[in-house]
Amino acid sequence: MKNFNWTTFTKRIAVKAELSDIYDAWSKPSEIEKWFLSNANYFDENTNAIERESNIKKDDTYEWSWYLYEIVEKGKIIEANGKDFLQFTFAGECLVDIKLSQQNGYVVVELTQKNIPIDDESKEGIRLGCDSGWSFFLMNLKSVYEGGLDLRNKDADLKGMINN
């Protein structure tokens, strides 16, 4: 563990879909709820709610929640180019970059979370916890957009599963 990088990680997955559909999966409230969140609210810089079928933009803010968790994650959209790149704050002051590219008939989704603090709580909760969480949710993104099957556990009687 001496050379383990606690401050950043990257996950990649190939999804058989159109680039615009995967961009929308990250940038439209109605789409991100299909595979990642139970509720996604976005607001423009004047705190007006963003329409559910509209793409988010730079400087919008968000409030996210998940099935079976009481927490509400709040953050800001740092960049959204309308095509293949988004960046947002997450887990405090961490940054998450979403880069999309096309390769061999797939959209390659590359997620990098960085600026992770190196205190013990952040190492466990953010570096290790988010790494595990993003791994599942990227697989769910692939499942939803390739076959329509949402793998998330939404049953409150079954907490502590790898799919929630």
Walkthrough of the structure:
This protein has 164 residues and is α+β, with helices and mostly antiparallel strands. The chain has one domain (9-158): START domain (Alpha-D-Glucose-1,6-Bisphosphate, Chain A, domain 4). It has 3 helices and 7 strands, in the order E-H-H-E-E-E-E-E-E-H. The chain has helices at residues 19-27, 29-32, 120-147, and strands at residues 9-15, 39-43, 61-65, 73-80, 85-90, 94-103, 106-114. The protein has a 7-stranded antiparallel β-sheet with strand order 1-7-6-5-4-3-2. A hairpin with a 7-residue loop joins strand 3 and strand 4. The longest helix is centred in the last third of the chain and has 28 residues, at 120-147.
Strand arrangement in the largest pleated sheet: 1-7-6-5-4-3-2
What is the H/E order?
EHHEEEEEEH
**CATH architectural grouping:** 2-Layer Sandwich
How many structural domains are formed by the residues?
1
Give the helix/strand layout.
Blueprint lengths: L8 E7 L3 H9 L1 H4 L6 E5 L17 E5 L7 E8 L4 E6 L3 E10 L2 E9 L5 H28 L17
Antiparallel strand pairs: 1-7, 2-3, 3-4, 4-5, 5-6, 6-7
